[in-house]
Amino acid sequence: MTTNLKNGGTVEQKKKEAEKAQREREKKAAEDAKREAELLMNKPAQIQKVPFGVDPKTVMERKTEKRSLYTDTRAEEEEVKKVETSADWDEEKLRSVVLSKKGNQKTTTDKVCKYFVTAIEDGKYGWFWTCPNGGDKCMYKHALPPGFVLKTKEQRAAEKALMDKSPLKTLTLEEFLESERHKLTGTLTPVTPESFEKWKKDRLSKKAAEEQAIKAKEATGRASSRKLRQETEAIRERKEEERLATLHGDVAPNDADGGTAGV
């Protein structure tokens, strides 16, 4: 009987613990749901950016309507991508597109492609932009350099207007040379047709004299080398004759005039 009471108490205790755990799980689930609802209520509304040339009404309709399982929208998305360029994107969008296209490129250097940067700065980079330096085979990186900041349309327009007003934009070659001429200082000789002809004649004469001196030096060097080879060959022949005379017991050529050889 005591054993039955203990077993009954144990079962009752386990039942209470299970109910308690269930209540705790339900309480935690309710708190999580409440917290998630508060986050959704306090989250600012996301404003969708509409690409240039696309009717905002069609974008909103596509967002609210349930996508039809019988309609293929890939062609429409491709058309939108064709008209999109970096001029219509913010920096976040630009970076995402660059990263999505980066996987097809094989680079051999850490240098950033100049055509890539120019296309971005000019607002011509897009989904279907092709690098003039070989497309995906370009050896340079198609990645935004560190510290790069995408300029807005207004900033680019202001810079272009400033450059158009710059005196360097309309400066001709003649005006540039005239301005540089006024910067010259010291005693100088003006260039005239007569002075130019004299300078040209002196320059040609000097060049001809230099070429003649080089040829004379080369000829002297060749003559000296030839004479040295002849003298070396004569010494070698004389020593060979002396060696042979000594070997056969004959009178050496140098001793032929000195008397008769002893017995």
From TrEMBL:
Example GO molecular function: zinc ion binding
Superkingdom of source: Eukaryota
Entry annotated with the keyword Isomerase: no
GO BP annotations, alphabetical order: cytoplasmic translation
Bias-annotated ranges (Basic and acidic residues): 12-38, 196-220, 228-245
Zn-finger region bounds: C3H1-type: 107-145
InterPro entries, alphabetized: ZC3H15/TMA46_C, Znf_CCCH
Disordered: annotated span: 1-42, 61-86, 196-263
Domain C3H1-type: 107-145
An annotated GO cellular component: cytosol
Keywords, sorted A to Z: Metal-binding, Zinc, Zinc-finger
Segments forming a coiled coil: none
Protein name from the UniProt record: C3H1-type domain-containing protein
Species of provenance: Parascedosporium putredinis
Taxonomic lineage of the native organism: Eukaryota, Fungi, Dikarya, Ascomycota, Pezizomycotina
